[in-house]
Amino acid sequence: MSNAETETETATMSERELKDKINRLRTQISQKEKTLNSVFEELKLYRNNIDELKKSRDELNVKVKDLVSQAKDLKSKRDENNRKIAELKNKRAEIQKENKGKADEIAQLKKKRNELNDISKGTEESLSKAYSQELNTFLNEDIPLNHEIDLFNKLEQLKNRLDAAQEANKIHQKIQEIYNTSFDEDINELNNQIQQLADESQDYHLQMVDLFNKADEVREDADSYHEDIKNKYSLMYPLKSKIDPLKSEISQLREELDEYLKQLDDIQLKKDEKNQDEKHTAAKEKLDKSGRLSLEDLKILMERGDLK
Fold first, then answer.
1. In CA terms, which of 48, 73, 91, 300 is 20 to 30 Å from 191?
2. How far is CA 226 from CA 10, 60, 72, 144, 215, in A?
3. Which is nearest to 258 in space by CA: 14, 25, 17, 13?
4. Is the pTM of this model over 0.90?
5. Is 118's pLDDT higher than 80?
6. Residue 201 in contact with residue 82, Cβ under 8 Å?
7. 279 versus 206: which is more confidently predicted?
8. Which CATH number applies to 3-282?
9. Where in the chain are the domains?
10. Which tens digits make up the pLDDT trace of 64-99?
11. Which of 38-47, 126-135, 157-166 has the largest mean confidence?
12. Which among 190, 202, 199, 231 is positioned nearest to 49, based on CA atoms?
């Protein structure tokens, strides 16, 4: 109701009607203020609940961040181990390739040595001893010509066998030297290092996976809290939408109430003025008739200027 309409209505209303209207307006205002306060209280509960949910969510998000950080650290360690393993495997492959070349060389030397052993058919020591004895006989003893020719041929054979034995021994020595310079121990050490790093890498990987899984579980809980927060906000929106209309209604009712209170005050003022006029008239009559006045009579007459 507009102010003009309210003023028009109040002009025709009795004091009783005005008081009834004022009481009804006060009741409406009180009810709407209670409703508004109820909305504020409910919003406050939602906000408190949201603050608790946010705290829980944020704590979980911090935990997720910490778990992911730990997992990434383990991943870095695993990847570093895998890089070292790749380097060691490359180094082992190079050694194996080099060993294969030595193995091929040893096989060729063994074949040559065996061929020489087939020619020598004895040890260098025994052949050297036999050759020396036969040479001594050939050079120092008086033997028949035909025996000397046979002995010379025998010496030639022994010399060839001795040369073959000596050459076989040299090749055998070279084979031993190649064996002594093989990298089997290095390969074994590399294998041990690779296995140790692989075991560590697997352990890092399992720990990393476990931490990532835990982070996912905690993240799900954090997301659940976040969904609860969103739901709370969605419930708050309808409540918030009530606030401004209620405030507006209360304001309008107060404006309307003020108009009615003003009209009631005007009525009361007129009643007071009439009452004062009546008292003034009575006081003047007393003064004119008897001159006996009460303190209130004196006060009224003095306020109206009848007495100085």
1. 73
2. 56, 11, 25, 121, 16
3. 25
4. no
5. yes
6. yes
7. 206
8. 1.10.287
9. 3-282
10. 999 999 999 999 999 999 999 999 999 888 888 887
11. 38-47
12. 231
